[in-house]
């Protein structure tokens, strides 16, 4: 595969990873804001907020790993997959936070589909290079963003504040990049 194709694939995987990380961060901020306004969030609400924040951090770490490494379609697609998987975890917390409201369930389902599509694109057989699977993953990510917007977790065109990646141990980074 040519260097140009690697760069094009990197751009596609990076855009998908950044979008997933933005979704995860938006859900985390949504829950955090809501919990901050609630007088009785309790331990369950704090646990949901912590799990959403953790998912946003892990998603941001996947984007950081992608940005710090040389272009490689298999590794780049795994970073996008990891970001989407973490965004799906955040969406599950959003669904719990919203008491399984219809739009929250739909947004969670869309996030799970985006995660599965990213996983398929990164799969062993295609290693992030299959144009059709990458297109499906891109479409599923766009659908997940639209569903998150409908659920009120993010606003169209919203610039979501970046989430700190926290401490990044070499072991964690190598696990995410395998």
Description:
The protein is an all-alpha fold and 178 residues long. 76% of the residues lie in helices and 0% in strands. The model has no long low-confidence stretch (mean pLDDT 88). It has helices spanning 3-37, 42-68, 73-97, 102-121, 131-151, 170-177. α1 packs antiparallel against α2 and α1 packs parallel to α5.
Question: What attributes does this structure have?
Answer:
178 residues, mainly alpha, 6 helices
List the helices and strands and how they pair.
Layout (H helix, E strand, L loop, with lengths): L2 H35 L4 H27 L4 H25 L4 H20 L9 H21 L18 H8 L1
Helix pairs in contact: 1-2, 1-3, 1-5, 2-3, 3-4, 4-5
């Amino acid at each position: 595969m040519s260097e140009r194709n690697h760069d094009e694939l990197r751009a596609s995987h990076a855009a998908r990873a950044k979008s997933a990380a933005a979704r995860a961060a938006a859900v985390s901020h949504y829950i955090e804001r809501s919990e901050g306004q609630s007088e009785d969030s309790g331990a369950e609400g704090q646990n949901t907020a912590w799990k959403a924040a953790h998912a946003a951090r892990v998603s941001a770490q996947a984007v950081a790993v992608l940005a710090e490494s040389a272009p490689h379609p298999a590794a780049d697609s795994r970073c996008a997959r990891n970001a989407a998987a973490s965004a799906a975890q955040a969406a599950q917390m959003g669904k719990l936070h919203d008491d399984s409201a219809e739009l929250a369930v739909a947004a969670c389902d869309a996030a799970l589909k985006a995660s599965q599509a990213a996983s398929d694109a990164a799969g062993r057989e295609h290693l992030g290079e299959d144009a059709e699977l990458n297109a499906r993953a891109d479409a599923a990510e766009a659908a997940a963003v639209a569903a998150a917007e409908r659920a009120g977790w993010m606003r169209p065109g919203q610039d979501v504040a970046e989430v700190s990646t926290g401490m990044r141990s070499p072991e964690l980074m190598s696990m995410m990049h395998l």
